[in-house]
Amino acid sequence: GATVSGRPTDLVGIESMVGLFINTLPIRVQASPEAFILDWLKQLQAQQVDVSQYEYSSLIQVQGWSDVPRGLPLFESIVVFENYPVDASLQKQGGSLEIHNIRAVERTNYPLTVVAEPGLELCLQLNYDCRRFDGATISRMLRHLQTLLEGIVTNPRQRLKNLPLLTEQERHTLLVEWNKTQTEYPFDKCIHQLFEAQVEQTPNAVALVFQDQQLTYHELNTRANQLAHHLRSLGVGPDGLVGLCLERSLEMVVGLLGILKAGGAYVPLDPAYPSERLAFMLEDTQVEVLLTQQSLVEKLPSHQARVVCLDTDSEALTQQSEENPKSEVIPDHLAYVMYTSGSTGRPKGVSVIHRGVVRLVKQTNYASFSAEEVFLQLAPISFDASTFEIWGSLLNGARLVLMPPHTPSLQELGQALKQYQVTTLWLTAGLFHLMVDEQIEDLKGLRQLLAGGDVLSVGHVKKVLIYHQVKQSIREPQRRHL
Description:
By secondary structure, the protein is α/β, with parallel strands linked by helices. It has 16 helices and 18 strands. The chain has helices at 37-51, 59-65, 86-91, 135-154, 168-177, 191-201, 217-233, 250-262, 275-285, 294-297, 314-317, 354-361, 385-394, 410-419, 429-438, 458-467, and strands at 2-4, 23-25, 77-81, 112-117, 123-128, 206-210, 213-216, 241-244, 265-268, 289-292, 306-309, 334-339, 349-353, 374-377, 399-402, 424-428, 448-452, 471-474. The strands form six sheets. The chain has a four-stranded mixed β-sheet with strand order 7-6-15-14. The chain has a four-stranded parallel β-sheet with strand order 9-8-10-11. It has a three-stranded mixed β-sheet with strand order 3-4-5, with no helix packed on it. A hairpin with a 2-residue loop joins strand 6 and strand 7 (213-216). The longest helix is centred in the N-terminal third of the chain and has 20 residues, at 135-154.
């Protein structure tokens, strides 16, 4: 809102009339970032002239003309321009009476009032409701207003979008101090090399758990090596794309790791995808080898890739060497190609290199990765949250628990969290909200709960933080490695 004097200059003798004529009217200002400052100010002035015809209208009348429902305020802040020269007016009175040190106490019923007082210098004053604002916030607002006005004076011909708002200290804090997020990580290593190093450290630790089955780090490495040697015999090498269409299982992780050890990059193909989408992805990537399972072969669309079934071809795979294959891959080589949902049009393949994945899960500062953690592998393999779940666990010596391939109910998810004593969990925003509403007790054992993919409800976040003492990360961690 803005305060008007109610004393039009074209009314003779208006300045000598006694009475309170001021009124407060709502002001709607449109600020296009591309507009030039001087042009915008002229338009604003012309708008104010037009508004003057309504300066005697009461707020009740204005409220009735507007679409704002009764009971809701038209505005919660006002601007007052004090252009009445009190000192000069008193000095003109003459006589022997002298008045000094004039002070006025003003009060409004609005949470925020900006008062501008002209003179040799423009003085700005902010009056505020202490229940809505603190002193630090108001001081920051004043500094921003000062910076903004100084920017206008310095270059009044620039565009609005170029006006400065932050002080130099604030810019330094945002761009330098808060941006010191660099950490040392093994940027010269590939995913499979870091896994092999972990195998050397904890060969007998449990790496994977799936229902009543499990694999140690040594066992997982052995099976992945055998697959890698077989894939190399089929011509898979650096940046070679290998399709992976498997339900969630131990074989799925063996397939991922075996492809990387062979030097290739995996292309996740969700068995639940429509045939048309799978056909598009196979055609677009032109994979030469496709890892799958016998039960899915007939469901796959027509393609030219060489098929390897990890279940029925297992006997041939066990004949391969168990040694780590010599790697020609460097961190800049492809690790995988994952496709977008295609919700805005045609799905697009996103290529991710080894270094990006390593940056996501090694020596990070957004979550704790250690051998003491138990991760739950819940995300579809075609969703990049699975990158966080799988490699965040296996490259740090943790235990990875794989959910069954079907979409679990909330009760099944909660049961798995308790049964396997999961400590680190990633959920989509929608699933996070449902778990907080209906199964919040099942989140009690978590040490880290990460959620993202969409906007999270603040109320749900507060509820889980109050109910459980968990380390909370509201983010999309998978985006860090793209």
